[in-house]
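Problem 12. The chain below contains 176 residues. Write out its predicted structure in token notation.
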Amino acid sequence: MIMNSVTSPILIDFHGDASLHALLSALEPYHERPLVIEYAGRTIQPGYHVTEVKAGSFVTLDCGGNPDSWHESVLQVEDLPSEQGRDFMTVEKFSSILSLVGKKVELRADARLTFEVGLPDMPMQIFDASTLILEAERLVLNLVARPAICKPRHRAAQAAATSCCGSSSASSTCCN
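Solution.
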């Protein structure tokens, strides 16, 4: 007896806050699949190219006078048409690029992952990994634009949602 079953794609949600390790771990079981990137309402062209991988450490002071620090891995990707009928690069090739870079540049596993993506001769846009979808024949990495935020206002909104700023004993200066 043959049974037909409806299967839905496997979805991994990074919530726009993926680390390099989280992405590589999610990709690992699918080395032979083509890796397709979707960003800004478009599907990247099959000839896309990882043009640069950056490893950075940041120490900042936000507009509320709060210090912060973090590590970041930035993957710069150029959206190019296919050369000679080439298909999308495989997960294996994508991972091997990062492995080669990792032999010369310290890529921290816990680093925040940022994508800089754009068409040739156009300004790059900054994205975060949103979801990874396993489809029948390929993996699709969906990127979302990274919004500018005021960290103190963002923290205050999160605190208000958990009643931090709503109580009469709140003494935080971030609650306006």
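Discussion. The helical segments are 20-27, 91-102, 151-161. Students who got a different answer should revisit the alignment rule from Section 12.3.
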